[in-house]
Write a structure and sequence with these properties.
This protein has about 675 residues and is α/β, with parallel strands linked by helices. It has 27 helices and 10 strands. The protein has a 7-stranded mixed sheet with strand order 3-2-1-4-8-6-9, with helices on both faces.
């Protein structure tokens, strides 16, 4: 039995509207396609086209109707039914429960990480509720340089803000379970100290007011297990990043509001910028290790969907709360970095196919698994639809029409294709694709202050048009990337867990040519086949062909910060968080500009810098139990004793950094060169 803190009637009505209209729209579009294709009798390729079209259109239709629900929610105002919000007296009262703000990191830039931690910490302090929060940086870094740099940055942060006893740093030597394992280790070691846990990513940033509001909502709603604050993309300057930031700011609010409006307490968790009830999370959200090998077995990569499903199975609700605000993260700087991140997410989401039928899950949790799968499978379905469409056109070209059917007729039957009907169906599909963008743009245009901060209404419209054109051209490239990821996962390829590229950096032409050579070739072949089979097809395929043929220059140009800056100076792709930055965003940007002292060699720094040495040993002592491979440590010790530190491998350096005795011995004067 599932516990609800909201009216089943209200939830049922909202869901019936969104899902019912999705089904009706899909049936109507499929019926129209069948009518168009049946003029000469349905062929096998046309039947396959119909199936693929139905699946793709259903996905588009669901997104469209959910966006309409979000638009109505935002226009009509009011909060979602089911959550108890604080009144004026409760808002002014001190928090009664304790919250840990945790940031798992993995080989990240310490300057950016600790700038965000400090900005968030100072923002919480400004609310007057700092005594209810502790901060943890949970490192899974595997490079000695990153490890030592993190320690020094943490110590410097504590010194600057007086954060001793409130800001903590811990590095795991065993990275089992990746991020999910990192959080599980935190809950096992320190979870009993806290009622709630706010999970951040390495590029996350949250305002103190938002954190306090989230903690207060958790206090007032004891059956809520997870509250998700949708993050706004900020902080990057490349043209590609600006496109994402602009789209997220204009279209994102109605998408988030739509998801919240019909999912209510059966919403999803995105893995970061959310608050969780620690006891419930620890007791009910332990992740299974799936049987078999990767890509479908082993540790679960996309842990967030699964944790939300387990929380819901335990009787707690999961909420997406767009009105919280004050939640930020950074976008990838260019298309290839975006695709690299997508590859891991793709494998993680496809893993969820093994969990769809798991016992006791709420139907909405199963739906979230399937929607996560569909977000990637939609690309190969679209690709197959294009390929089958070409086969169907080729089939029709060489198939002799049946002028005299089996039943008697006085005159031949001349099959005709309803071109007006085809254009109508295409227009409806494009309308449903573009309507969410139009609704988001209309909302912003209706808010004079917001529109002014985004360059004014004219530039806002120009930015939306330019973003739509560029995203249309980039979509076929992502279609091929994601199709490759899906088919690769099905064939058994596995992904490696690496840190994401976060800094603005120009993309070399050679790298773009290497990564997009296949895309360009596919675009050329597609154009030639279309012209050969039926020249009238080429205009219909022109957005796909153009995007693929231009994939190399598009990838290079959109990766340039200079073009992004050029656009911003002309008022294009601006967001309010850039024109009038919230205090926490401005502070994080200021702090990130401070250069930390670089750590070229982690072990060398610990051996030669007394402050780094003392700090490292103190942190080792506070985190006992780190395992060291004896053979690796013995080899490292021998090289150190023989004064050959330059011959140490990366693993040997890590082994030395994990062994306090060796570190003490290596600093003795007798061993100095």
């Amino acid at each position: 039995m599932y516990a609800h803190s909201f009216s089943p009637g209200t939830a049922g009505l909202r869901r019936t509207c969104v899902l019912g209209l999705t089904v009706l729209s899909t049936l109507a579009a499929t019926w129209e396609l069948l009518r168009l294709l049946s003029t000469r009798g349905l062929t096998a390729p046309e039947l396959a086209m119909t199936v693929l079209f139905t699946l793709c259109f259903a996905w588009i239709s669901l997104s469209c109707w959910a966006a309409i629900a979000g638009f109505l929610q935002l226009v009509l105002g009011g909060r979602l039914p089911g959550l108890k919000w604080p009144d004026a007296g409760e808002e002014a009262a001190p928090l009664k429960r304790r919250t840990a703000v945790v940031m798992p990191i993995h080989n990240e830039d310490p300057s950016a990480v600790f700038a965000n931690v400090q900005a968030t910490y100072e923002s919480v302090a400004a609310t007057g509720h700092l005594e209810s929060f502790d901060f943890y940086v949970l490192s899974d870094s595997t490079r000695a340089e990153a490890w030592v740099a993190e320690e020094l940055a943490w110590a410097e942060l504590c010194r600057r803000v007086g954060g001793q006893g409130r800001i903590f740093y811990r590095r795991r030597s065993d990275n089992t379970g990746k991020k999910a394992g990192n959080l599980a280790d935190f809950c096992e070691r320190w979870g009993r100290r806290y009622d709630f846990m706010v999970v951040l990513d390495a590029d996350s940033l949250m305002s103190g007011d938002t954190l306090v509001r989230m903690a207060r909502l958790m206090e007032l709603n004891p059956r809520v297990g997870i509250l998700q604050a949708p993050p706004q993309l900020v902080g990057r300057s490349t043209l590609f990043a600006r496109l994402q930031q602009f789209a997220g700011r204009v279209y994102g609010p109605i998408v988030a509001a739509g998801a919240a409006a019909w999912q209510l307490g059966e919403s999803n968790y995105w893995g970061h910028n959310a608050i969780l009830r620690v006891a419930a999370f620890t007791e009910h959200c332990g992740l299974p290790v799936l049987p078999g090998q990767q890509p479908f077995g082993g540790h679960i990569l996309s842990h967030d969907f699964v944790e939300a499903a387990l929380m819901r199975r335990a009787g707690y609700t999961v909420w997406l709360v767009p009105e919280l605000g004050g939640s930020y993260e950074q976008p990838p700087p260019h298309l290839l970095a975006y695709a690299q991140r997508d590859r891991r997410w793709c494998q993680g989401n496809l893993q969820h196919l093994r969990l769809v039928l798991a016992g006791g899950l709420h139907p909405f949790s199963r739906g979230h698994f399937l929607m996560g799968v569909m977000s990637y499978v939609a690309s190969p379905l679209w690709l197959l639809f294009l390929c089958v469409g070409l086969v169907a056109a080729l089939h029709d070209r060489f198939l002799e029409p049946e002028y005299f059917p089996a039943h008697r007729t006085l005159f031949p039957v001349w099959p005709t294709f309803d071109s007006e009907g085809a254009l109508r169906l295409m227009a409806v599909s494009l309308f449903m694709l573009l309507l969410p963008k139009a609704l988001g743009l209309a909302l912003v245009l209706g808010q004079r202050e917001q529109a002014t901060l985004m360059g004014g209404r004219l530039r806002l419209v120009l930015s939306a048009l330019a973003e739509s054109v560029l995203s249309t051209l980039l979509a076929p490239v992502m279609m091929l990337f994601q199709s490759h990821f899906v088919f690769g996962t099905l064939l058994g390829y596995r992904v490696s867990w690496t840190s994401q590229q976060r800094d603005d950096e120009d993309l070399p032409w050679a790298e773009a040519a290497r990564r997009h050579a296949v895309h360009t070739a596919v675009g050329g072949v597609l154009a030639i086949v279309a012209l050969t089979v039926f020249p009238g097809l080429l205009p219909w395929l022109s957005p796909v062909v153009a995007g693929l043929l231009l994939s190399i220059p598009l990838s290079v140009w959109t990766a340039r910060a200079s073009l992004g800056t050029w656009a911003a100076k002309r008022g294009l792709f601006l967001i309010p968080e850039e024109s009038a930055p919230p205090p926490v965003v401005a502070r994080a940007h200021e702090l990130a500009g401070r250069e930390l002292e670089p750590v070229g060699d982690g072990l060398e720094r610990v051996l030669e810098d007394p402050r780094a040495h003392a700090l490292h040993l103190a942190l080792l002592a506070s985190s006992p139990g780190a395992s060291v491979t004896p053979l690796t440590l013995a080899s490292a010790r021998r090289k150190l004793m023989e004064r050959r530190p330059e011959q140490l491998s990366a693993q040997e350096k890590l082994a030395v950094l994990l062994d306090a005795e060796t570190l003490e011995e290596a600093r003795r004067p007798s061993l100095s060169p």
